[in-house]
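For the sake of transparency, this paper describes our internal protein records without simplification. The remainder of this section carries one protein's record, kept here as part of the documentation:
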Amino acid sequence: MLCVSYHIKQKDAMPCVSTNNHMKAYYTIIIAMALFSCQSPKKEDAKTLKPKQPNQLQQKPLVNTSIDTSSIAIIKNDEVLPHLLQDAAGSAELSNNDLKVIDKTLETVIADYNSEHEIIFKQFGEQHPDANFKREYFIIDLKSYKRQYIAFYNKLGEKEVWVNCICKASKDWQHKLVTVKDGGNCYFNLKINLTRDFNYDFYVNGSA
């Protein structure tokens, strides 16, 4: 509401009076009228000026994912971190977008691995024609693997994930970390820095 101020024109001024009491009463009326015109907003108007509380703000939904999560287990165990991951400074959560990045990274890494081992497989076949090497011993088929993810923050505060892939999973693989010595390419793992989008420490088990 606009605040209206009142001004007294010289020609409309009241005539002089002999006592100060009349002047005091006159100015008291003027001040009261000005204050009344500048009254504060109504209660319902004040409510509309209040900012929204944090819990009322709408958050953006996570990115939808088409990844088959039935083959993925997110292991949340802080006790595992110090023993398994020396660079871990604390556990982290994975978003749907993180799952997409992991999936894409795995596909790229395994595609490169398979390209190299296709050559090795052919070379072994040529050098040892009677050995009857099986291609599956050299090539990794991601669709045949279960995955275990352990997300963590490194000492720089960057989000990373340790990906453990296994082709022969135990019944409790979704809750218990699977570690195997040897086993060949049935078992492999790597680390992915999700903050800076790169991978490292890719390791495929050896054969006994």
Remarks:
- Confidence is low (pLDDT under 50) at residues 1-19, 34-64.
- Residues 72-204 form one domain.
- The helical segments are 20-37, 43-48, 80-84, 96-127.
